[in-house]
Amino acid sequence: MFFTYRKRVPTLFLLTVFLIFFLFHNYSLTAYATLEELAAEAEERKQLPIQSNQIDNWPIGPKISAQSAILMDANTGVILYAKNIHEKLYPASTTKILTTLIALENGDLDDMVSFSHEAVFTVPGDGSNMGMDEGEAITLEECLYGIMVGSANEVANAAAEYTSGSIDDFIALMNTRAKELGCTNSHFTNTNGLHDPDHYTTSYDLAMISKAFFQNEMLCKISNTSRYHFEPSATQPDDFYKLNKHKLINGEIPYDGILGGKTGYTDQSRQTLVTCAEQNGMKLICVVLKEESPDQFTDTAELFDYGFQNFQVLNVSENEEKFNIDNINFFQADNDIFGSSKPILSIDKDSYVIVPNMAGFSNLDSTIDYSIVGDDHVAEINYTYNGTYVGSAYVNLAEYTESTFEFNTDPSQSANIDGERINSTTNEEDTIFINIKKVLSGILIFGAAIIFIFIVHAVIVNKNNARRRQNRVERKKRRKERARSNLDDFDF
Asked: Are 172 and 187 spatial neighbours (Cβ–Cβ below 8 Å)?
């Protein structure tokens, strides 16, 4: 937490601080000893195992002094570096990533946010703040800048009250939203990350929250702002600036491709940091928890270098050669009942995998999941490298465009196995088959039902018509018989 005020500090307060300094002048000796202890703990943390380094043929990641760290692809969730990623730790002000995400998801940037007594006075005065007073108001957009750039605790509370009506209701929403984003080892008790034994997360969970955060362009812009100017208004009279203390954002430690991030610190959490950067077609999120300054910044830069320099992006539709469709000729050329010579299925052209530079697409294992629910998705292909997930791709109902994925039609590399990998007799690579019967069975059953209903309807209609015709014939016959009977009554 940083000691920040924008209001004029009373002279009496300064004198009090000066007196306390002299009364406790021996504190510096104690602090020095504590720094030595912290340095020793940091060195011990460097020796902790790095789980991603235990993957066969995986690039060896750097030893860093964070207790927990993760490097994750922001789009696919592929994990490139993992160190104690599921250990529960204190997030400090990186909590505000979730706070601002929820506030923006549920609010309007132009809405006015008022500061209640509870919002202002339930946070410690020596914590990060923006000096807002009870009764003042700023826009939600200014609130988000105050939270992410200035790390203002009271502003996080006000945004929570604006969003949910009360801080407690907003905290409940935080825990619900975290679970929706895939968090399994997190629990939040406040909006700002002030220390509470029951307020914790993991580097994995925080990366999953950040994954949603950095998909929003406005949040990227806000969190990547090095300095923000708050101008006076009718509801907020002061003119001041807030500076971002994230050194990869404010330029103190230059790094190409930074998209945003958030710092955090309490005595119990130590330094925490979340950062997002993009290079070489990769958008990576780095989270480090429990580290000492300035290592949280230098280690983050080192982890980004590790990711961008040792991994590559491979487009699935451009590299996949193992998938075939049973009876492919039924769906193409002269036998195509759909009136087109192009395949009716395609692999999503935007899907990709991330693999080590020394690996190729042919080194990946893959499985098909038919349980995917979606408007156009009929299956999902999941890829692994030495047992580690590296990406996935959807198999979609094809749009008839030139980019449609052409499935392999070589019969020498085909066999009929429903969605399972087998060894080809003519190729060492595995061949995977998509059984069209399984994909289209529902459509065929539905079509058969429609035809059956049509036939039954036609039979009923014809039967009714035949009955009416028979009735007309019988009526005519009866009329003729009555006519003859009447003639028989006359003697000619």
From this structure: no
Contacts of 40 (CB under 8 A, 6+ apart): none
Whether the predicted pLDDT of 467 surpasses 70? yes
Mean pLDDT calculated for residue range 8-19:
43
Active-site residue, selected from the candidate residues 52, 83, 96, 211: 96
Neighbours of 73 (CB within 10 A): 23
User: What pLDDT digit, counting tens, does each position of 208-246 carry?
Assistant: 999 999 999 999 999 999 999 999 999 999 999 999 999
Tokens for 373?
């629910």
Please say if 93 is a catalytic residue.
yes
Nearest CA to 116 among 149, 86, 157, 150? Answer: 157
Taking Cα atoms as reference points, which of 170, 186, 226, 184 lies closest to residue 91?
A: 186
Residue 104 tokens, joined? 């923006």
Could you please report the per-residue DSSP string of 220-256?
HHHHT-SEEEEPPBTTB---EEEE---HHHHSSS--T
Tens-digit pLDDT profile for residues 332-355: 434 444 445 555 778 889 999 999
Indicate if the alpha-carbon torsion angle 336, 340, 344, 346 is positive or negative.
positive
CA distance between the termini of the chain: 129
Q: What is the phi/psi pair of residue 417, to 5°? A: -130, 125
Q: Is the dihedral of CA 52, 56, 62, 67 positive or negative?
A: positive
> Is 293 a known active-site residue?
no
Distance in angstroms (rounded) separating the CA atoms of residues 95 and 90: 9
Alpha helices for 313-385 (secondary structure H): 316-319
Choose the catalytic residue: 151, 164, 203, 366.
151
What is the C-alpha to C-alpha distance for residues 62 and 305, in angstroms, rounded to an integer? 10
Q: Which of 52, 65, 68, 93 is catalytic?
A: 93
Per the annotation, the verdict on 151 as an active-site residue is yes
Rounded distance, CA 84 to CA 489, Å?
Answer: 115
Which pLDDT score, from 0 to 100, does residue 350 have? 92
Average pLDDT value for residue range 427-443: 55
